[in-house]
Amino acid sequence: MIRRITAAMKALIERVSSRLVNKLNLLFTSIIILIVGSLTVISYQMLQKESVSNSIASTANNLMLVNQKLEDYLDGIEQFSLPHNKYDEIIRAVMQEGDDYAARMYLEDYLRDMFYSRKDLESIYLYLIDQQKYYSITRDAYNITIRVGYQGGIDEQPWYQEAMKSPQNRSFQSFVLPDAESGYRMISEPEFMGYHRVLRSIASREPRGVLSFYLKPTVKDSIMSDIPFEEGEHLMFLDPNNVPFHMDDPKVYEAISSADWFRDIDDVSGSPVTWQNEDKRYLVVYDVGQQDGWKLIKPIPYSSIYEAATKARNLSYLIGLIFLVISVILVTLTSNAITKPLNRLSRHMRRFSEGTFDAEAPVQGRDEIAYLTLHFNQMVRRTNDLINERYRMKLVEKNAILKALEAEINPHFLYNALQAISTKALKSGNDDVADMVDALALTLRYCISGKDIVYAREELRHIERYLALQSARFGSRLQVDMNWDESLMELQIPKLSIQSLVENSIKHAVEKVSTPVTIVVRATVSESHAIISVYDNGPGISSDRLEQILQTFEVDWEEQEGENIGLKNLNTRLKLLYGDQSGLEIHSDLTGTEMTMRIPRGGVGHV
Length: 607
What we know:
Elements (H helix, E strand, L loop, with lengths): L1 H16 L2 H62 L5 H10 L4 H17 L3 E8 L4 E8 L2 E8 L7 H8 L4 E5 L18 E8 L6 E9 L1 H8 L11 E3 L5 E4 L2 H8 L15 E5 L2 E9 L6 E7 H4 L1 H47 L14 H40 L3 H18 L2 H17 L5 E3 H19 L3 E7 L7 E3 L2 H14 L6 E9 L3 E8 L6 H12 L10 H14 L4 E7 L2 E9 L7
Parallel strand pairs: 13-15
Antiparallel strand pairs: 1-2, 1-6, 2-3, 4-5, 5-6, 7-8, 7-11, 9-10, 10-11, 12-14, 15-16, 16-18, 17-18
């Protein structure tokens, strides 16, 4: 199974990497993914740090302000519990309460005035220590009720002992924990806090009573509502001894109270703490009051802090995905625009390699690919020209071989037969016939010699024998004038080239008229060329016919029959042997015709 998966992956990679467009798409897509992913990760980390910093700063400031309000509220309760102007009267009434009815009425009126003066009190209790008796005032339905009762064991209550030991003669009692009790027989236990103030005799400093306020949670809730509270967050309000007076989740308080760092949060300027609770991480921000050391603790889940950063990250991923799709489309279009000309050029190269030598690719644009295509087309044209030249040379060679074969039909038999005829003519005394037969035999031997390039002197001797045979035919109608530069006797020229020109003059001049015709064969030298010309003073060639002959020189050579095939063959041979600077020129008018071969100086070294 693993081998199949590996083989499939390799095949997929090879398939993807086999085309240039896929490589470009993969390259640019990887770059885009790398850039977008890197920017998203970096921005996410920066947003995380910024979110944590902002959360710490805002939460710490908020907790400090709310904690200040809570301490101010508790300070107000403490001030309210002190009977500044009536303290002596209160102590005297407490001490005389058992014997003096007026003292009892005074205490009831005092409690009633206090209860009516505030709306945040659930009840007020005044405990008389010597009598173990208490007065209470509460709201029953719509009535304000004052009760008097006796209860022992108050002095054993933790809040009572704490108040007695306190330098401020006070204690705070929390009712947040499930097992918290007031110590008094009440209709219903308080929900928030009990504040206890010890009343001492001014003279003896002996405790005479304890004034207890049981506060409603509404004011606390109202003050603490200024703290933003999101789902998953927690909030605790603790006294200096870490006793909770408010907590939204007892389990969270229990987990926090067992943490090592919890015992070290008495520092007012303490830094936030990272706390792991089960599978959640919290940032714990707290504030310790500067007056009495009350503490507000707010654990905030990192998931909530990172929520904005997570949304920004997801949005960045979405935007990045959209840009990735757009970029892939643009990259695909751009890659296709680049690779299509390359594919087209590649197809033409493949056609060229398979033998289609006219496989020129269309040139589009002016970029590097167009430049490459242009030079490929130039290479194709040059290669095609070279192939055509080679092909023409092969055809010329083939034509020469065929011509030679035609002339070489049993050459030894013909040559021996001509020698026999010459010998018989000599024996019969016909010297002219013998000379003609010898000239014909030597002409035949020259034609079938097999050489394609000969020296000018060899060609001239052949011309002399050829003209001797033609003179025997035409007699005085044929006049020949040879004007050949001696320096050109060693010039290498195509075999039978001069004969082709002389033969053309005989065919189109001597045979056409009955008057004598002079043929002039001359050779001269210019700075760059050797010039060989054959001139006759025959009737000339008409302009239309001359134009047709010259047009045959311009088209590609091919094996064909018909008039002037010898001149076209000669022109093609000259260009193949000496290049485009050589060739055959024809000039004709009513006074005669001149055919000129121009051969670059240097001869066949061009080939």
